[in-house]
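To fix ideas, we close by showing one paired sequence and structure record:
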Amino acid sequence: MSSTRSPFRPVRGLAGIYQRSRQLFHEGAKFLTVGLIGIGVTNLVFIPLRALGLGPLTSVTIATVVATVVTFLGNRYWSFRGREGGGAAREGVTFFILNGIGLLIQYAVLGFSNYALGLTTKIENVIALNIGIGLGTLFRFWSYRKWVWVPPEVHLARLRVGRHRKGRAAAESGASEPAVIGATRPVSQDQSRRS
C-alpha cells in the first residue's frame, strides 16, 4: 500500500507561510537591524551622560532623541522603503510622536527599576534601559507599519477615501460643479419650435 501523502507536505506548508509573511519577515529583519543600531547609539550616549552625573530620565531622553534621528533615517530609507508615507514632514511628525510613546515605555521600565525597585547601579540602569527599549521596539514596529509607512494599496485607499469625503461634503453643502466657459445649455423642444 502506498501513501498518497507527500513527505514534503510540511515543508510546503512552511513555504506557504513564508510566502504569505515574506514582507513581514524582511521588514522585521531590517527594522531589527536599524533598531540594534539605535540601541547602540542610545547606549553610547546614555552611558557617558550617566557618568557625567545626569539623572537616568534626562540621560535616556537625550540618548533617545539622538537615536530617533538615526532610526528614522534607517527605517524610512531602508526598512520600509517599499511602503508609502504621507511625505517626509508628515512621516517625521508621526514617527517622532510614536517614538515619544516608545520613550514613555522606556521611562516606565527605567523609572520602575530605579524608584520602585531601588536598582540604581550603572549596570542595573543599563539592563532596565535595554528592557524598556525592547518593549518600546515592539510597539514601534507595529505602529510604524500601521501609521507611518503603509503598503502602497493602503495609501491609495486612504487617499481615495479622503477625496470621496471631500466630494460628498461639497455635494451636501450645495456646491455645484464649476461652469465651463463657452458651454451652451441644451435647447428644449419648446425653444426649438419657437425659432
